Amino acid sequence: MTLVTVESLDCRYGLLQAVRGVSFEIGQGETVALIGANGAGKTTLMRAVAGAHRPHGGRVVFDGIDITRIPAHRRVALGIALVPEGRRLFPGLTVEENLRVATSRRRGRWNVKSVLEVFPLLQPRRHVAAANLSGGEQQAVAIGRALMSNPRLLLLDEVSLGLAPVVVDAVYRSLTDVIREGATVLLVEQDLTRALKVAGRVICMLEGRVVLEGDAASLDRDRVVRAYFGLKRPA
Amino acid sequence: MKVQRWTRTSSLFTGGTAVLAVLLACVPLVFDPDVVQKLTTLLILVLLAAMWNALAGYGGMLSVGQQAFIGIGAYGTVFFARQGVSPYMAMILATLLAGAISVPISLFALRLRAAQFAIGMWVIAEVISIIVRLDQNLGAGTGISLIELNQYEPNFRQAYTFWLALAFAVIFLAALFFLLRSPLGASLQAIRDDEDAARSLGVRVAARKRLLFVLAGFGCGAAGVLVVANTLFIEPSSVFSVQWSAYMIFMVLVGGLGTFEGPILGAVLLFAIQTTFTQGGPWYLVGLGATAALFALALPRGLWGTIEERLGLRLMPVGYRVVEAQREKKVA
Amino acid sequence: MTLVNAVLQGIFLGAFYAVLACGLSIMFGVMRIINLAHGDVAVLGAYIVFVIVEHTGVSAFVAFAAALPVMVVLGYILQLTVLERSLKAGILTPLLATFGLSIVIQNLLQLTFSPDVHSLGGSAGVVTTSSWQVTSGLSVSALGIVVLAVAVLVFGALQVFLSRTRAGWVMRATAEDADAAELVGIDSRSVYARATAIAVAIAALGGLFLGIRSVFDPVSGPTQLIFAFEAVVIGGMGSLWGTLFGGIALGVAQTLGAQVHPQFAVMAGHLLFLAVLIVRFGGGRAVLPGVRRALLLRTAR
C-alpha cells in the first residue's frame, strides 16, 4: 500500500532550483534511502515532504490526502515527523522537555518512557539541557523527539553527520529496532554502505533530479557510485 | 549588451533638476515672504528625508534619534549668535558642530544593532535635550528666539533663509548623489543587501556606515539650523521631539526607502498633507502613523520604489542598467 | 539615611519599571521584536481602567480585572494583524510598523480623551496614600510594597510557566528555533500570539501602576517605552529575571540621580543605559554569565 507519493516536485530558493521534477512513491513499511552528493537537493526534498518548505510546483500525497498546502505542524498530526539535518534540538530545554514538547494527539507506542528504553544512554541525562549533550546523545534525542508524535512516516536527514562511527553504529542499532516495528522510513545517508544495508530501496539524486532508483539488494554498487557522482558509463 | 549609466530619461531629468534649482533660486524674488517661508519648510523636509534615507535606506541604520542633531543645529545657532557671531555665520558653525558631534557618537552608536541603535539614538537625543534644558543661557525649558536675525528686514531675512535652505538641500543631495555614484556607492548597496557578505568581500562596512552617519549628522544639523532661521523661536520639547523622526520615517517609507528620488517625493507629499490639513492635530497624525505602518508592512519599497520597479524608470543616474538586445533589465 | 532611603525608593520605582518592561522582554525573547508601541499599549491599558472606573465607580484594581480580557484580545489582534507580517519581513520592518502604530495609538487616545492628564490614584483606595515611617529617614509606602510584590509575583509566575508547564516549554522551544518547533508539531503562529497577549496584559498592568503612582496622558507612551527598554537592556536582552534586576537598577539610578539634582533623575537612568550599551559594545549578552545560565530564555545572538 502506497503511503507517500511525490509527484513532479519542484522546490526553489529564490531563483535557485533545488529540486527538479522529482517523483517517487514509498509503500507502507518500506525503508527508502535517499542518497546523493552535497547540494543534490536531498534536504530540501525532505523538508518539502515534512512541510517546512513550500514547493514551487508538484504535489505531495500522504495516505491519499494531498498535503502540499498543509503546514508542517499539521503534518505532524497527520503522522509525518522529520529528524532535521543538524539535529536542531532546543538547546535550552532538557532532554525530557525536548521530548515532551513534541507530543501530539496521536496514540501509539512511543512516549517518554519507551523512547528512553530504546535509547538507554539518555536515561541518566534526562534532565540535562540539550546544549550540554554529546553529539550521539543529541542525535538520540532528535530521533526520540520525532518518535514522540507516533509518526507513520519517519524522515531522517543525515543522522550520522558529525558523529564518530561507533556512535553511528549505536544510533543505527536503535533505528533498526524502530524499523522492525513497522515504521515507514525515508532516510538521507551519506555513508553508502550503511544506506544500502539498512534500506530496502535506494533513490539517488543529483542536482535536484532523481538519477537512479531501485532495490538495494539488486543494485550494483558501482552503478550507484556512478549515479552519485554523475559519471557517464564508459563507451 | 552594454552596461549603461545614463539613459535618455535620466540625462533629461538631471538637466531638468539643474534648471529647477536655478528657478527655485528666484522664488524669493517672485513670491511673498509667507510663501517663501512655506517653501523653506518644504526644503527642510526634503533635506531631512534625504538624510534619514541615507541612514536607513543606504546604510540599514534605523535611527529614531536624528532630532538630536536637529536640536544641536538649532540651539547651536542661537549659542554662536549669542557669542557675537553674525547669524548666518552662526548657522554654518552650528551645522559644522552638529556634524562634529556626530563623529564621537558614531564610535559607539554604530556598534549597536537594530533596536538598540534605534532607541539608543533616541536616548542620546533625550540626553542632549536635557542638557540643553539645564542651560539658562539657552532659555532653559521655555525656549529661546534668534533675535539676532531681527537686524534683517523680514523680506530679506526670509530670502536669505530660503537661499541657505536651497543651498543646503542642493549640497547634501549632491553629496549623496556623488557618494552613490562612486565605488563607495556600490559598496553601500552591497552593505544594505547583505552586510556580512559585503564584509567578507572586503568592503569596509564600518567606515562606510560612519560616513553615512556623519553625513546625516551634518544634514540634520543643517535642518535644525534652518528650523530656527525659519521660525525664529525654538524650544527643547519641539526641536528635540521624536515627532521629527516620525515625519522622517513617514516621508521615506511612503516615498521609497533606498531610492534617491523617493524621499523627495515623500517630502513633497508630507508638505502637501501638512499645508492641506493646517489644523494638524490628532486625525492627521493618526493617518500619518497608519500610513507609515501600512507601507512598512505592505509596500516596503514605497511609492517611488514601486513605480521604479513597475516602469523600469530611473530618473537620477545613480545605479547601472544592463541593456540587452530585446529587453532592458536593471541591475543596481 | 537619605541615601538608603533613596535606594529603597529606587527599588520600589524599579519594580514598577520592571513590570512595564516585562512585556517588552517577553516579546523580544520569543519573537526578537521590539515593540515600539509598547509604552502606548501600557497607557491604553491605563485608559481602559480609567473608563471603567469613571463609569462604574469601582476600585482601580477591580476595573483592571475587567480590563484584562480586553487587553488580551487586543494583544491577539495586534499579533495577528501587525506583528505577524513584520516577522517575516526584514529586521527594520517591525520597528517601523510598531513606530507607526505608536503614533496611531497616541493620537487615537488624544481624540477619544482630551490631552489632559488623568490619574488612577484616587480610585486605588488606601494603597495610594498609606506609608510607614520605619526610621527617621526611611519611609515605606504601601504602593511601593504592592508593586514590588506584584513584580516578583509576575516574574515568578512567568518563570514557573516557562520552566514547569508544557505550554511554557513550547514557548521556549519556539523562541529558540521556530522552524524546528514547527517540525515537531508546534504551531508557531499561535505561540507568538499567546506571547503577545501575555506581554500586552502585563503592559496593561504597568499602565495601571503608572496611573496609580502618577499621572498619564495620551502621549505618555514614549516615555514609558524608553524606561522599559532601558530596563531590558540594563538587565540583558533576552533574559527574563534580568529585566527585573534591570528595572530595579534603573529605578535606583534615577533616585540616586535625584539626590544629586532633581532634574538629574531621568538623566542618570539614561547614562546608566548608555554606559551598559558601551560596555557591551552592542552585544546582547547578560552581564553575569552565571546568571545567564540560570535564566530560561535564550539570550540574543
Mean pLDDT level of chain C: 88
Please, what is the average pLDDT of chain A?
A: 89
Give the second-level CATH assignment, the architecture of chain C: Orthogonal Bundle
> What is the number of beta strands of chain C?
4
Q: How would you classify the helix and strand content of chain C by structural class?
A: mainly alpha
Rough shape of chain C?
globular
Q: Give the number of helices of chain A.
A: 8
Biggest interface and its residues per chain? Answer: B-C, 44 and 45 residues
The ordered H/E elements of chain A are: EEEHEEHEHHHEHEHEEH
Biggest β-sheet of chain A: count, sense, barrel? Answer: 6 strands, mixed
Molecular structure report:
The complex is a heterotrimer of chains A (235), B (332) and C (301). Chain A is α/β, with parallel strands linked by helices and 235 residues long. Chain A contains eight helices and ten strands. In chain A, 31% of the residues lie in helices and 28% in strands. In chain A, the strands form two sheets. A six-stranded mixed beta sheet of chain A has the order 6-7-8-3-9-10, with helices on both faces. In chain A, strands 2-1-4-5 form a four-stranded antiparallel beta sheet, with helices on one face. The N and C termini of chain A lie far apart (40 Å). Chain B has 332 residues and is mainly alpha-helical. A three-stranded antiparallel beta sheet of chain B has the order 1-4-5, with no helix packed on it. In chain B, strands 2-3 form a two-stranded antiparallel ribbon. In chain B, helix 4 runs parallel beside helix 6. The longest helix of chain B is centred in the middle third of the chain and has 28 residues, at 154-181. Chain C contains twelve helices and four strands, in the order ααααβββααααβαααα. Chain C is mostly helical. In chain C, helix 9 crosses helix 11 and helix 10 (240-260) packs across helix 11. Chain C has one domain: ABC transporter involved in vitamin B12 uptake, BtuC (Orthogonal Bundle), CATH 1.10.3470. In chain C, a hairpin with a 2-residue loop joins strand 2 and strand 3 (138-141). In chain C, 74% of the residues lie in helices and 4% in strands. The chains are: A alpha/beta (235), B mainly alpha (332), C mainly alpha (301).
Give the SSE map.
The complex is a heterotrimer of chains A (235), B (332) and C (301).
Chain A lengths: L1 E12 L2 E12 L3 E6 L5 H9 L6 E6 L2 E2 L5 H7 L1 E4 L11 H6 L11 H7 L16 H13 L5 E5 L7 H16 L3 E5 L3 H7 L2 E6 L2 E7 L5 H9 L6
Parallel strand pairs in A: 3-8, 3-9, 6-7, 7-8
Antiparallel strand pairs in A: 1-2, 1-4, 4-5, 9-10
Chain B lengths: L1 E3 L3 H18 L1 H4 L2 H26 L8 H16 L4 H23 L4 H21 L9 E2 L8 H28 L1 H11 L1 H6 L4 H27 L1 E2 L1 H4 L3 H13 L6 H15 L4 H18 L3 H10 L9 E3 L4 E3 L2
Antiparallel strand pairs in B: 1-4, 2-3, 4-5
Chain C lengths: L1 H30 L6 H19 L3 H29 L3 H21 L5 E2 L11 E5 L2 E4 H23 L1 H11 L1 H6 L4 H26 L1 E2 L4 H15 L4 H21 L4 H16 L8 H6 L7
Antiparallel strand pairs in C: 1-4, 2-3
Helix pairs in contact in C: 1-5, 1-8, 1-9, 1-10, 2-3, 2-4, 2-8, 2-9, 3-4, 3-8, 5-6, 9-10, 9-11, 10-11
